[in-house]
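Fold it.
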Amino acid sequence: MVSPETQQEISAIDMEIMQLTEKRLHLATEADSQMTKSEAAISERSYERSFLAGISDGTDLNMESCKRSLFQTLFNLSHSYSHSKLGKHSDLENKIRQALLNTSTEFPKSALVACQGVEGAYSQKAADKLFASADIMYFRTFDGVFQAVESGLCRYGVLPIENSSYGSVTSVYDLMKTHHFHIVRSIKLQINHRLLAKKGTDLKDIKEVFSHEQAIGQCSHFLKDNKDIKVTIVANTAIAAQMVADSDRTDIAAISSPDCARLYDLEIVNDRIQNSDHNYTRFICISKDMEIYPGAGRASIMLSLGHTPGALYNTLARFSALGLNLTKIESRPISGSDFEFMFYLDVDASVYSDAFVTLLCELDQDPAAFTFLGNYSEV
C-alpha cells in the first residue's frame, strides 16, 4: 500500500505537471501567433527534433523511452491546442459544416443505388436493408460502382469492405485511392453461404465450384476436406449461382446464398460449408458529395505517412489524446512507391465534436496525403 507521504508527493508532482503543461501550451500558442504558418512549422520541427535527441544518455533505456513518449505526446497536444486557438484550419471544416447544414435529417428511403454483381448478390441484400425501396443498377466490377457514384450516374453505391472471418476486401480498399467519394452509412449483414447445384445433384457428383474469392476463403475448411473439387473464382456469389443455373453441366456448383437458390431454381446440396456460423460482412454506402446524417458516430479517414521513425505512432497518439477509439486500421501498399503505404482508419467519433474537427483539419494540413472519407452511422 502506498504511504500517505508518497501519495501526497505524487499528487503534488501531478499538479505541478498540469500547471506547467498549461503554461507551455499558452506560450507555444503565443510563439506561433508571432510567426507565419511555415515559420512556425519549421521552428517547431527543429526544436522538437533537437529536444528528443537530447533525451538519450544511454543510462536507462526504459526511462528514455518513457520520456520520449511523454514529450512526443506533449508536442502533439501543443500543436492541436495552438491550431484550435489560432484558427489555423483547412477548408475541410467549412465542407463539414456545409454538409451538416445541407444534409436531410433523415436517411433517404429510396434512391438509385449501384451494386456489383447481379440480382441476388449480397450487396443487393445490403442495399435493400439500407433503403426501403432501392432502384438497383448492377455493375460488373467494384470499380464500376465507384465510377457510377463519382460520375453522378447513381446517387449511392454499396460495397463490401470487410468480413468477420476472412478479413478486408482488399480490392475495394485499393480502389479507394483512385476515386472521389464519401461514406454516408455502413451496415453489417449476416452471411449464410450454401453449396448450390442443379436439382438432383449429389455432393459426390460435383467436380467444380464457382464463387467469389471472399466466399471461397470463408468456406476454406469445407473445400480443404473436398480436395478433388476444382475451385474457380468469379466476380460475385450471385454470378456463380447464375452460371450454374445457365450451364448444361451437371457436375458444377456455386457457393452462394439461400436467396440465390430460390432465385435461380437451384438446390442446396450442403448448408454447412462456411467456416463459422458467426459470419458477417460489413458494407459501406458511398455518395459523391459529403452527407452527414444525425446520429453519425463513426468516421473514416485515409492517409499516407512518411518514412520517419514513429510516424504512425505519433498520428495514432493524436487520436488517443482525445480519448477516441480506433476500431480499424488497414494498410495497403501505394502502387509505384517503394514500401510506402496508405492507411485507412475507422474511429468512433463525431464531427459534432469541435476537438475532433480540429484534429481532422490538422491532419488535412499535414504534407502527407489525407482524405476525410465521412462521418456516418452503422446499422
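The radius of gyration is 26 Å.
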